[in-house]
């Protein structure tokens, strides 16, 4: 993707719909006058007085205990520098988003229009009653040191400057594991630090706490080695002044026989020769973003024994702050810690280091396109999507807070705490990344039947750029090329085909002959077969059938029946499948929900419900998710009569007989498979009492389609679909008005399905 296209997409992303990335939503009911009287006057007076009488009750009656302030003055925003508080706000909102999705912590971002340290500290101090913790962000050095130190001393809630400590914690975990792999003692290794800002100082301090010897640490800034003889040392740099080298020693000279290089500076300052000069089993952490001090490719080409980490997600060993701050604050908030101290940071370091040595869940392997991530030179720290981070790092931090005496609300039941953490975010909700990366393992050729549509072309570029698929574009060649040129869309590897053009006559004749043989006893003559092949949906389906493409996406400019009919007539159903069906995936906060049948069968029989369930379960399993299936209607386990209730009862009975190990139950009302306590209380025999359902089967098309559309609109839930189930080869029909992202998701689904075909 070009920089211009990335810029346009980023601006559109932040502006579309409701501007920004975060919002505030109510957590209590508010529909009636009574609700409002409890939420505000007169009922609100009672919790007010309870807190007045016992200040700690603020954690019981308000959101304080789960609310963090992300505060910045915009003086050191990413790599953009001093761009001001308003310009830094998108970053602060992004930080809030990460807090929420990774640790279920609510955030208010606060941008302060001041560079005065006293004014900054005073403002944050008077905000203390609102928040359970403060995350300082993007504040320039050396002011950031003073601001954090003063706030830690003056506030009674945890404060952390993530730019300092986040990188320090993650890189420390990586360093411990890298040294373990090469069997080197941290107290003996020679460490070169390039950069002397807030992050570099904090990293070096933490390495020192882990046992690194200051006499073996050599720090460089833009003016050279931090040496006691220098008179221009400001801020905290003097702390790491080292006279064990000459003051005029260059970075290249210092790197000779060095064991570790840590880059927190700028890109492309490290050469291959400099890397080659380092000691055996060199460890290089090139963490400048977006351009590392040396590229991953150059570093591994320079020497085979290197352990390399960067700040980038497209290479192994990404040092990413998101591995730390959400879980550190989660643990600190849950024990009402007064601070985030050295013991808590070290606990996070060791928890992260230990987690990297444990077997990696399939969901993580799939998310990164790997088959078997295992502790080693290319996997020294956990991946950000690892669902175990929350239940590993947060408890470690909480325990350290308790043991170091700063926890005001100690945890006594750790098993219950682990359960609470697991419930905060539900199942791992990285399904989209899993699907996309699984598709990238073996990209396929995908036909886009509606390529004269600009949204489709943008999606085609994205699937090409992300290496998900090779696009085949159907439509008028001149019109498509004009759209590509006018909108700066680059599709050099895409084939553009006009099914109506003269240069396709041979293919049209061949496709027509195949179709005629398939349908000659279904009311079609030879002429009609030839004419139908000029229709893009028929032409595209025939490309898939003949193996000239692996999958097809259509429906943007045709209604559903017009797109599905060619697929049924040409590709046909899987062996043993009597009817195809449709499924949507809703990305709920509790994990993905699979809904079927949402698009095809108007009023299926019990036997057809069984087939719909089997097809849905098979699809769910493709994403390494175990289906937990609820058959829904208005009745609970025989509590009411009626055709739908009886039909779903019968379907459950057949499914249990055919698939004894399948987790499936019903018939039941729609709330029951989610209200597990109610299910246990009233129907303890149910297969679903051990956890929420993730796959919902409906009695008819009206029920499923209405439920799907209400939920996605009212709850504003992200979705994938409709996925067509039961065809021999993947063809999917888009909804009218599908977005670029929705089309890309459907292409990834189609590629994953094509990968599974024999």
Automatic annotation (TrEMBL):
**Does the record bear Oxidoreductase in its keywords?**
yes
What GO molecular function terms would the record report? Answer: acyltransferase activity; malic enzyme activity; metal ion binding; NAD binding; oxidoreductase activity, acting on the CH-OH group of donors, NAD or NADP as acceptor
Concerning InterPro entries, the annotation shows: Aminoacid_DH-like_N_sf, Malate_Decarboxylase, Malic_N_dom, Malic_N_dom_sf, Malic_NAD-bd, Malic_NAD-bd_bact_type, ME_PTA, NAD(P)-bd_dom_sf
What residues does the Malic enzyme NAD-binding domain cover? 164-402
Gene3D superfamilies hit by this protein:
3.40.50.10950, Isocitrate/Isopropylmalate dehydrogenase-like, Malic enzyme, N-terminal domain, NAD(P)-binding Rossmann-like Domain
* Location of the active site: 95
Domain Malic enzyme N-terminal span(s) in chain numbering: 19-152
Give a Pfam family name. Answer: Malic_M
Q: Where does NADP(+) bind?
A: 77-84
Domain of life, per UniProt, equals: Bacteria
Note the SMART domains from the entry: malic (SM01274), Malic_M (SM00919)
The UniProt record gives the binding positions of a divalent metal cation as 137-138, 163, 289
Cofactor (UniProt): Mn(2+); Mg(2+)
Query: Keyword set for this entry?
Result: Metal-binding, Multifunctional enzyme, NADP, Oxidoreductase
Q: Could you tell me the Gene Ontology terms of the biological process aspect for this record?
A: malate metabolic process
The entry's family comment says: In the N-terminal section; belongs to the malic enzymes family.
Q: Which PANTHER family match?
A: NADP-DEPENDENT MALIC ENZYME
UniProt-recorded name of the protein: Malic enzyme
The lineage, from the top, is: Bacteria, Pseudomonadati, Bacteroidota, Cytophagia, Cytophagales
